[in-house]
Amino acid sequence: MSTQSLPSRAAVVIIGGGMAGLSCASSLAQQGVNDVVLLEAKTLAHAGASSFGESRMFREMYSDPVLCRLAQEANRLWREEEQRSGEILRQTHGLLFYGESWDEETIEGSIPGARRVMDDQGIPYEALTSQQIAERFPLKPRADFSGLFEPTAGAVRSDRVIAHWTRTARAAGHQLIEHCPVQAVDPSSGRVSLQSGEQIEADQV
Ligand SMILES: Cc1cc2nc3c(=O)[nH]c(=O)nc-3n(C[C@H](O)[C@H](O)[C@H](O)COP(=O)(O)OP(=O)(O)OC[C@H]3O[C@@H](n4cnc5c(N)ncnc54)[C@H](O)[C@@H]3O)c2cc1C
User: Fold this and answer.
1) What is the pLDDT of residues 41-52, one digit of tens each?
2) Over the stretch 151-195, which tens digit does the pLDDT of each residue have?
3) What is the whole-number distance in angstroms between the Cα of residue 27 and the centre of ligand 1?
4) Is residue 125 within 8 Å of 95, Cβ to Cβ?
5) Fewer CB near the last or first residue (10 Å), C or N of the chain?
6) Could you give the CA distance from residue 113 to residue 102 in angstroms, rounded to a whole number?
7) CA-proximal residue: ligand 1, atom 53 (nearest)
8) Which segments of the chain have a pLDDT < 70?
9) Which parts of 46-105 are beta strand (E)?
10) Residue 169's beta-bridge partner residues?
11) Residue nearest to atom 35 of ligand 1 (CA)
12) Whole-angstrom Cα distance, residue 10 to residue 7?
């Protein structure tokens, strides 16, 4: 565990110091909730965590209208976050979604489905043939492939975001404790048990 002393209770305990845990800590700081302890098993956004790295793509180009609306709401929140931080947290370079033109949903959606949703939502895009994709990008798509280019999509600078959320949480007095793996949580009492044998009582986990 880090040298920081562990409190015996806190208003909120957050488990995990990746993007989810740190964004939660930062949001609480913005709402004036200061009695917060974040417990991270290793280090904040460490190399084995999903949040590690320079960037994560964002897009509104989904064939599920619910995902599309969630992405639109997320973009609104990213704009607010950029204003607060005074930093550019996203790079808007556009994203290309290309492949088979079948109307069949995959885990990434489908091109016809995404096109329908973007038409409904008024999201700008360009529809590209296989040849147009080959002319504009360093790609050799199959002749029957097609694509959609969303010019307002891009990449979140996850490294900058993590640094911004960490600063915001620390400035609010939150304790971000590294090398502190959680063993168990008792949802009825709010007791958080650590692998070290210590415990923290939390109003919310
Ligand atoms: C290679 C890759 C590429 C991706 N690309 C994209 C993309 O382009 N666009 C996009 O939107 N998403 C992308 N994702 C998904 C996105 O990065 C993740 O959804 C997001 O980072 C998850 O954040 P998290 O905080 O939930 O998880 P993590 O970053 O994994 O954080 C969880 C933290 O919890 C800690 N932890 C776990 N158990 C305990 C415990 N018992 N006690 C204390 N701490 C604990 C871990 O050590 C870890 O630090 C990608 C993911 C990967 C891996």
Assistant:
1) 999 999 999 999
2) 999 999 999 999 999 999 999 999 999 999 999 999 999 999 999
3) 18
4) no
5) N
6) 9
7) 50
8) 1-4
9) 56-58, 90-91, 95-100
10) none
11) 16
12) 7
CA distances in angstroms from 56 to 26, 50, 139, 156, 157, listed in the order given? 19, 10, 21, 5, 7
Instruction: Give the separation between CA 200 and CA 138, rounded to whole angstroms.
Output: 54
What value of ipTM does the predicted structure carry?
Answer: 0.98
SS3 content of the chain, % helix, strand, coil (to 5): 30, 25, 40
Q: Give the domains, in start order, of the chain with CATH numbers.
A: 1-54+158-205 (3.50.50.60), 56-156 (3.30.9.10)
Spell out a b/e string for 19-28, using b for 16 or more CB atoms within 10 Å of the CB, else e: bebbbbbbeb
The per-residue pLDDT for 4 is 65
The answer to whether 125 touches 148, Cβ cutoff 8 Å, is yes
Report CA 78 to chain centroid distance, whole Å: 10
Structure tokens at 195: 């692998």
The 3-state secondary structure of 50-62, one letter per residue: CCCCCCEEECCCC
Residue 39 CA: nearest ligand 1 atom is: 43
| Pocket lining for ligand 1, CB < 6 angstroms | 15-21, 39-42, 46, 49-51, 56-57, 181-182
Within 90-142, where are the H helices? 111-121, 130-136
